Amino acid sequence: MAEDRFRQSSHFRDWIFTEEGLQKRRSDVNEGFTKVVRQRLLEDLTLQNKDASDNHLPPTLDQGEELELVNYYACQLNALSSTMSLPTHIRATATLFFKRFYLTSSVMEYNPKIISFTTLYLATKTNDHYLPIEHFCKNLPKTTPDQVLEYEFDVCQALNWDLFIWLPFRPLQGFLLDFQVVIPETPVEILFECHDQAKRFLVETLHSDVYFYHSPSIIALSGIYHTNPSLCLSYLQAKSINSTYDLVVSISNALDSTKNARLDREKAKDCGKKLYFCMDPLKKKNSALYQKRKATEEEASLSNKKQKLSNSTDQLDVNPFA
Predict the structure, then answer these.
(1) Whole-model pTM above 0.90?
(2) What domain count does the chain have?
């Protein structure tokens, strides 16, 4: 029943992909924004009276480098959530918000470090975990509340306002309750231990792409298999669902590979340096292009205010009783 409801959800419709589909999504985002950012960098050079030619443009990030930074900051986000002692479901929601955001946006447009803070604070709000923004920012050196909130609307738009995420932790609890019915000879202590270890394993692998391929229920079952393979196999046999065994093992191995694969901090650092030079100049408040766009917007806003004031004055001059 739960699996049927999941397949009717926006989570399944909009955020579950094939491996090829996910790869293409990321490739399209990277290729699309690379063209945009190169054009904006050229405009910025022109405004500085510098040689605005392709030869003078910094190299942009490729898809692999973008993913390297996304995965690095997803892990940092998980670690920050732990430091702040936030509940598991908030950590998971924030991480998946973050990874979903970069399926529609590029790290060359939105700084992943700031977006990780934004998605974490957004996750506290969507899960009714009240946390004053000032208190939240105390855990973030050199980060102001304005920086955290600046792109919150952009994040919500990129997520298509789909702020409810189906997570594997509730199915995990449900499975282990069902274990007590299906294989009652299993000691409760073993089930409790299995739950805690499987939950820890799933939390440690939240940055895995597995969450874009499979339902929360099958991911939860894979977490149980990773913790206690024989117990999981007994359950599958008792429920006569042996056909899912190979899939459960495959997902468990994929999650285990994610856990054991150490992110290359130096590589992420090199990508970060490269990002500094190819970052969208419209997001750099000291860039010539940003200053020009800001001046244009302020001029347009002032013009609109004058127009509204002129219209209201004209209306006051008209005798309504004439």
Answers:
(1) no
(2) 1
